[in-house]
């Protein structure tokens, strides 16, 4: 009997230790206990940027938070910049990326994308009050600013030979805007909600072209990795659209 009691006590101890071990990783709902590392841009207002109080905010940031809450997963945001985020995702140093990233065929070869969460477009902007540039033809022989890896950059690259202008590349929107405001470049090409928001916040720029149709933005993961994260993003996004939360977030940053 004594031996049986000892065995019973040992079994209870083993069971207790196993329960503690199972609970030590926490619970992140649909993420099965995994905490995801999500890379993002530094300055791409109104999608991600730092507000006057020093808080990192924007459409992407609020959408990700709302989707994570809806689906019950945890994540850590890694603010790297657009190009660095792409590199981190490609190297599988990040589990996902949300940064106003356009879905295109080239990126589909490297990443798996969610359903589109925003349809964008490209616009040309010049220094406020400038009369020098009124059309693409006026860009001939001049410098034009773009942000590396963006839809605006891709569009400018597609027309630069036709209109004979030189591209100057930047890693962030703030320095790209400054380039045009100070007159070092005569114009810039940027996603219209981004440059439109910048102008509404006081940037000394103005739009000087018709809107060019752009690609849709998507959330991305490394190719073949984290399919459950894409599934949760898509399901959460659909739920936010149905509840009205999605439009509420957009209305907070984009006035139509």
General description of the model:
The chain has helices spanning 2-23, 59-71, 82-90, 105-108, 151-163, 173-181, 192-200, 227-243, 245-253; strands spanning 35-40, 49-50, 56-57, 74-79, 96-97, 111-113, 118-127, 143-147, 166-170, 187-191, 205-207, 212-217, 220-222. The chain is built from 9 helices and 13 strands. The longest helix has 22 residues, at 2-23. Helix 2 (59-71) crosses helix 8 (227-243) and helix 2 (59-71) packs antiparallel against helix 9. 39% of the residues are buried. The chain is globular. Strands 7, 8, 9, 10, 11 and 12 form a 6-stranded mixed β-sheet that branches. A 3-stranded parallel β-sheet has the order 4-1-5. Strands 2-3 form a two-stranded antiparallel sheet. With 256 residues, the protein is α/β, with parallel strands linked by helices. It folds into 2 domains: 29-117 and 218-253, 3-Layer(aba) Sandwich (D-Maltodextrin-Binding Protein, domain 2); 120-214, Periplasmic binding protein-like II (D-Maltodextrin-Binding Protein, domain 2). Helix content is 41%, strand content 23%. Strand 8, helix 5 and strand 9 form a beta-alpha-beta unit.
């Amino acid at each position: 009997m004594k031996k049986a009691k000892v065995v019973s006590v040992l079994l209870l101890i083993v069971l207790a230790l196993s329960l503690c071990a199972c609970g030590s990783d926490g619970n992140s709902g649909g993420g099965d206990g995994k905490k995801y590392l999500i890379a993002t841009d530094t300055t791409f207002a109104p999608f991600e940027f730092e507000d006057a109080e020093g808080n990192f905010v924007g459409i992407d940031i609020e959408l990700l938070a709302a989707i994570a809450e809806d689906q019950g997963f945890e994540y850590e945001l890694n603010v790297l910049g657009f190009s660095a985020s792409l590199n981190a995702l490609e190297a599988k140093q990040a589990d996902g990326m949300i940064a106003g990233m356009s879905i295109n065929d080239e990126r589909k070869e490297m990443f798996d994308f969610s359903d589109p969460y925003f349809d964008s477009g490209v616009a040309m902007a010049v220094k406020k009050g400038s009369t020098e540039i009124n059309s693409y033809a006026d860009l001939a022989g001049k410098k034009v600013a773009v942000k590396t890896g963006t839809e605006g950059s891709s569009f400018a690259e597609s027309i630069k030979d036709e209109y004979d202008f030189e591209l100057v590349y930047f890693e962030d929107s703030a320095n790209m805007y400054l380039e045009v405001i100070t007159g070092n470049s005569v114009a810039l090409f940027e996603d219209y909600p981004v440059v439109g928001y910048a102008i509404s916040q006081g940037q000394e720029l103005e739009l000087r072209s018709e809107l060019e149709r752009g690609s849709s933005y998507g959330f991305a993961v490394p190719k073949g990795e984290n399919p459950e994260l894409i599934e949760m993003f898509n399901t959460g996004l659909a739920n936010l659209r149905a509840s009205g939360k999605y439009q509420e977030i957009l209305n907070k940053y984009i006035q139509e």
